[in-house]
Design goal:
The complex is a heterodimer of chains A (220) and B (385). Chain A is built from ten helices and seven strands. Chain A has 220 residues and is of the alpha/beta class. Chain A folds into two domains: 121 residues, Response regulator (Rossmann fold), CATH 3.40.50; 81 residues, Winged helix-like DNA-binding domain superfamily/Winged helix DNA-binding domain (Arc Repressor Mutant, subunit A). A five-stranded parallel beta sheet of chain A has the order 2-1-3-6-7, sandwiched between helices. In chain A, helix 8 crosses helix 10. The radius of gyration of chain A is 17 Å and the shape is globular. Chain B folds into two domains: 166 residues; 144 residues, Histidine kinase-like ATPase, C-terminal domain (Heat Shock Protein 90, 2-Layer Sandwich). Chain B is built from 15 helices and seven strands. A five-stranded mixed beta sheet of chain B has the order 2-4-5-7-6. A two-stranded antiparallel ribbon of chain B has the order 1-3. With 385 residues, chain B is of the alpha+beta class. Classes of the chains: A alpha/beta (220), B alpha+beta (385). Chains A and B meet through helix 1, helix 4, helix 6 and helix 7 of A and helix 8, helix 9, helix 10, strand 2 and strand 4 of B.
Chain lengths: 220, 385
């Protein structure tokens, strides 16, 4: 995955947007393997073409990009999902990230930002906007404050909180590294770790829910 | 079409009561006719009672009688018919406990009045009928007093029931309207999101890349996109019982091309006045960014809810403020950022810090305690998705 062109799949229910993004990426040397307009189609096609990165819109008509994200991440361990969604869709974005998306980019981002985000996602980095950092911070604090969840909930280290706050205030990884006198890589690792803990916790919670409600039983 | 009336079952009961009590009147005339001083008049009055029953029953059942005029006419006609007992009953019958010509048939008008206009009307109509009973008997006997209590009491109780029924119906109708409006709003928001916003975002993005005049168009499309997005994204203001408001929805609207607002996924509840004050503080800080940090400066607003306090950070990547300039401005007596923002944060019981260096932008951090009122129930697990 680190060599050669990065393969991409674009999922969006709006044809004009979908084709525009696909064209932007093709022009800049990405291998756009497929596009899809709905969640179930996205899951099906992703299984066949196994792209490095899936660009996922969250509002897919009546379907949800969150479910598609979860399915793709579970079935294709090498495929990463980058949410490309309109700003303002807060809870959806948080859900998608908990379901396994590696990052989030607003649709108004420039072509350069998009190229950069897709490349970083393909290399396994977490792509955080300030908005997503604010949501993730809020989610950790919500879990810590909720009596029912506080026990099992993951917690941020002081350093992770510090880094995440700076991301939420719009600083780039480079600026954060300078300010905290850390290496760029260390900053990236802190950011990734906040996501990984959240995703792991979410998987554990889902599994526990399934067992408690008997959903884990094999269908007859 | 008139909307369906919550008191319809009560009106049916009124009609049934009238028919049943008419039966009593008929039986009473048969039983007591031999003792009457004018039996002929008794039959005539009974005929009138039958006629009035025939009019009022359908009037109440078919809605056209559910009016002030009809109900109070009912009270008066009933009282008048009752008074004819003075010429029908013999003096002996009058002093004994023999029933008046109208018997319990008179119990219906106070109930009709109560159903129509509530408990006061019911008690009033009951009092009127009770007074007529007293006048007819020509004395204030135990029977008359007992009748008075029963008549006014039934008017009171039924009036209470009819008001309660109407209120319950109004509340249900209101709840249904709110639900319908919310559903419609969500549908609209979804449609706008799926169509208009996507196109505007696309225009904004492509135009910016093309540059020149297209970039101007892109900027305009971008402004409309932001305006429209905040319009559909802000949930309708919930009228919370404790007068608190969600700080997020007020600050999110400030998001523009150059301003990014980051908030938690769950509501940040604070007293309404605090939310208003913080909103105006943040917009002042952002205005300051555009004035002093330079044309192309970008700004970020971060809202954090720490449970006992709320932290709002406003950062820009502009020119920064030279050390000492804020203090200088304050000591010069100029009403600048320093006095206005600092003083107002202090009024909220909070603190404000400023970090800045020439060329490194500015960063305000406002900390405000949530206070005893604002903290209530903010960390409900139910708020989680």
């Amino acid at each position: 995955m680190t060599t050669g062109t990065i393969s991409v799949m674009v999922v969006d229910d709006h044809p004009m947007w979908r084709d525009g993004v696909a064209r932007d990426l093709s022009e800049r040397g990405f291998d756009v393997r497929a596009t899809a307009g709905g969640a179930s189609a996205a899951v099906r096609i992703a299984r066949t073409v196994a792209p490095d990165v899936v660009l996922m819109d969250l509002q897919l008509g009546s379907e949800s990009g969150v479910d598609a994200t979860r399915e793709i991440v579970q079935n294709l361990p090498k495929t990463r999902v980058l949410v490309l969604s309109a700003s303002g869709a807060h809870s959806d974005v948080l859900e998608a990230v908990k379901a396994g998306a590696s990052g989030y980019l607003v649709k108004s981002a420039s072509a350069e930002e998009l190229v950069d985000a897709v490349t970083r996602t393909a290399h396994g980095d977490a792509v955080f906007t300030a908005g997503l950092a604010g949501l993730v911070l809020g989610e950790y604090r919500r879990m810590a404050a909720a009596p029912a969840e506080a026990e099992a909930a993951p917690k941020l280290t002081d350093r992770e909180t510090e880094v995440l706050r700076l991301v939420a205030k719009g600083m780039t990884a480079r600026q954060i590294a300078d300010r905290l006198v850390l290496s760029h890589r260390t900053v990236e690792n802190h950011v990734q770790s906040t996501l990984r803990k959240l995703q792991l916790h979410n998987r554990v919670e889902l599994a526990r829910y399934a067992i408690e409600h008997g959903l884990d039983a094999e269908p007859q | 079409m008139q909307k369906s009336d919550a008191t319809a079952p009560l009106w049916s009961s009124v009609a049934i009561l009238r028919v049943v009590t008419f039966g009593f009147a008929v039986v009473a005339v048969f039983v007591h006719q031999d003792g009457y001083q004018r039996p002929g008049l008794a039959w005539i009055v009974l005929g009138l009672i039958a006629a009035w029953t025939l009019f009022t029953v359908p009037a109440y059942l078919l809605k056209f009688g559910r009016r002030v005029a009809v109900v109070w006419a009912d009270v008066l006609v009933t009282c008048a018919l009752m008074y004819t007992s003075v010429w029908i009953l013999s003096p002996q019958q009058m002093t004994e406990i023999s029933p008046l010509i109208t018997t319990v048939w008179v119990s219906e008008p106070p109930i009709a009045a109560a159903v129509l206009n509530g408990r006061t009307a019911g008690v009033l109509a009951g009092a009127l009928v009770a007074v007529s009973t007293g006048l007819t008997r020509g004395a204030l006997t135990t029977d008359v007093t007992r009748d008075a209590v029963l008549l006014m009491g039934s008017g009171f109780v039924v009036g209470l029931a009819s008001v309660t029924a109407r209120r319950a119906q109004e509340r249900m109708a209101q709840a249904a309207r709110v639900e319908a409006a919310t559903a419609e709003r969500e549908r609209l928001a979804r449609n706008i999101h799926d169509s208009v916003l996507q196109v505007l975002a696309r225009v904004r993005k492509r135009g910016k890349e093309l540059g020149g005049e297209a970039a101007d168009l892109a900027r305009m499309a971008g402004e409309q996109e932001v305006a429209l997005r905040s319009l559909v994204a802000t949930t309708p203001p919930e009228s919370s019982d404790d007068g608190s408001a969600d700080l997020r929805s007020r600050l999110q609207v400030m998001e523009t091309e150059t301003v990014q607002v980051s908030v938690p996924g769950t509501p940040v509840r604070l007293p309404g006045t605090t939310v208003t004050e913080l909103t105006s503080l943040v917009s002042e800080a952002l205005l300051n960014v555009t004035k002093h940090a330079g044309e192309n400066a970008r700004a970020w607003v971060l809202v954090e809810d720490l449970g006992d306090e709320v932290v709002i950070s406003v950062r820009d990547d502009g020119a920064g403020i030279p050390a000492g300039r804020l203090d200088q401005a304050a000591s010069d007596g100029r009403m600048g950022v320093a006095r206005s923002i600092r003083g107002r944060v202090a009024d909220l019981g909070g603190t404000i810090t400023l970090e800045t260096a020439p060329g490194a932008g500015t960063e305000w951090e406002i900390r405000v305690p949530t206070g005893p009122g604002g903290k209530k129930g903010r960390h409900r697990v139910g708020g989680a998705r």
